[in-house]
Amino acid sequence: MSDYKLYINGEFKDASDGGTFDSINPYDRSVNAKIAKATVDDTKEAIKTARRVFDSGVWSGKSKEERSAVLKQIADKIKENSARIQELEIADSGSTFKKSKDDMILSYRAMSTFSKLALTDLDEDPGISKEGFSKNMVVREPVGVVSAIIPWNFPLQMACWKIAPAIAAGCTIVLKPAPETSVTALELAKLIDQTDLPKGVVNIITGDAEVGEEMVTNPMVDKVSFTGSTEIGKRVMQLASGTMKKVTLELGGKSANIVLDDADMELAVDGTLYAIYFHQGQCCVAGSRLILTNKIYDDFIERLKNKMMKMKIGNPADKDTDIGPLVSEKQQKRVLDYIEIGKKEGARLVYGGGIPEGFNGYYVEPTLFADVTNNMRIAQEEIFGPVLSVIKVKNENDAIAVANASSYGLAGGVWSTDNDKAMHFASKLRAGTVWINEWHLLNDRAPFGGYKQSGLGRELGIEGLKSYTEVKHIHVDELKDRKKKFWYNVTVPVE
């Protein structure tokens, strides 16, 4: 069993009070590792370190080329160690072999992409300069100290999504992974420690709500970047407002998956299964609401059921496993409770709905509900589990109204063989990401974030990089004669 420590100022440290917690394997409930549990004092130390290092200019003063080179070093370290870290992530989070392998690639890609984006000149010419009168520049500077709090569903990838743009912009950062899945973020700390990144630029701590609250309220922090539930996101926003910090929130979703009558049905069925059951539905963009017209409703549900019967529930470490465990006993109970809610609300259980036999871990069968109405809780609330709600509409135009009748707006999808028609539907969806004949495919160079209660701001791409900067307008006046100044004769006594 491994021991993991906090990473503060380039040193691996025990918690100040010696506290620890266990990493539990969701597959068999065994203990993987013992992890140092940060206190509020440890958190203050990490933030103080990040503040001191940022203000020193040892990183914020580096050139774009120097920052880019270090990001590439981190990316290369991830790539070199991906097989080992993948095994740890499977044991720590219950991610399947297939999913965790992709996570390693995407984590590398995030660091690699931002090593390139770090070279981007973000400064602008506002077009208001006038020769002989004034020169104007709009420059972007690193925002400062960043507190980043990430969820348990994509541990390494989320850590890279926060760290990469922050340090590419010249910021320093304190990162807190979720208690359920802290191992790979702390493994990332070991890799970062082997690069040329100055000590104290990246600090990684663990802990519970009181640690998170200190990260959000501490006056030395300039920006908070949070990924998690909408409920907690609202609390983060409220706490951060006390010191008017910049806030980026990537929150929950209840994404609508619309299959139009002319869709390639075989493709749409496979895509629908992937949209919801990928990572056991523990994904903010999961296609958890399936919207079908009367014309294709019964046939499509039957196709889904037949395919679901062939999905393999198994050990997440096995290469052919489709469905692994949920991350924790708490999450398992949450999902099972929602399944019972769906039954009581009158939804028809077509498939699944229980705990599969033969497993000791936190498993829930892939579950399919039909005859769901859009006002049911299972259609409106984020379950974060392998539960698909199918909603019938009279016609395709009604599908848009149902899709948008949600407090969320993170993602959505449309399946059709008519691209113009699909684009029309995509333009009507109130969501930050819309897929056409695809799902879950994100690009590090494209912005990611949500409408409505799915969040504030954007991550990834140039928009994500800019979110870690402050904007400054510099005006250089070139008039030599003070009498030609616009304010002469206004507030200055005339001689």
Observed structural traits:
495 residues; alpha/beta; Aldehyde Dehydrogenase, Chain A, domain 1; Aldehyde Dehydrogenase, Chain A, domain 2; 2 domains; 7-stranded mixed β-sheet; 6-stranded mixed β-sheet; 15 helices; 22 strands; 21% strand; globular
How would you describe this structure to a colleague?
There is one protein chain. This protein is an alpha/beta fold and 495 residues long. It folds into 2 domains: 2-251 and 454-474, Aldehyde Dehydrogenase, Chain A, domain 1 (3-Layer(aba) Sandwich); 256-436, 3-Layer(aba) Sandwich (Aldehyde Dehydrogenase, Chain A, domain 2). The protein contains 15 helices and 22 strands. The chain has helices at residues 40-56, 64-80, 82-93, 97-117, 155-168, 183-192, 209-217, 230-240, 265-277, 297-308, 329-345, 377-380, 396-404, 419-428, 461-466, and strands spanning 2-4, 6-8, 11-13, 20-24, 31-36, 134-142, 145-149, 172-176, 202-204, 223-227, 246-250, 256-259, 289-293, 348-351, 367-372, 387-393, 408-409, 411-415, 433-436, 451-452, 455-456, 469-477. The protein has a 7-stranded mixed sheet, sandwiched between helices. Strand 12, helix 9 and strand 13 form a beta-alpha-beta unit. Helix 3 packs across helix 4 (97-117). The longest helix is centred in the N-terminal third of the chain and has 21 residues, at 97-117. The radius of gyration is 25 Å and the shape is globular. The termini are far apart. The mean pLDDT is 97.
In short:
With 495 residues, the chain is an alpha/beta fold. The chain is 37% helix and 21% strand. It has two domains: 2-251 and 454-474, Aldehyde Dehydrogenase, Chain A, domain 1 (3-Layer(aba) Sandwich); 256-436, Aldehyde Dehydrogenase, Chain A, domain 2 (3-Layer(aba) Sandwich), CATH 3.40.309.10.
